[in-house]
Design a protein that fits this description.
single chain; alpha+beta; Histidine-containing Protein, Chain: A; 4 strands; 35% helix
Length: 78
């Protein structure tokens, strides 16, 4: 099951904190900007895309606990 949210990572501190938070998950997390998809756990990958506008974030997991935790943490970046 995939869950997709839109978040705002418009400054370096937010992007760094986002990367630190997503690295704690076992599931794959993608950051999607237009046709580009980067690993949400990679700070370098995140910084290679245009963050001036909101991006979509998607977690690939079937674990309801991990999805709930993802939704709770991503609320900070909305």
């Amino acid at each position: 099951m995939n869950t997709r949210l839109t978040v705002n990572l418009n400054d370096f501190a937010k992007a760094r904190k986002f990367s630190n938070e997503t690295s704690k998950f076992l599931s794959e997390i993608d950051v999607i900007r237009g046709r580009y998809v980067v690993d949400g756990k990679s700070a370098l990958g995140i910084l290679t895309i245009d963050l001036s506008k909101p991006v979509d974030v998607e977690i690939h997991s079937s674990d309801p606990y991990e999805i709930k935790r993802f939704n709770d943490i991503m609320g900070e970046f909305v």
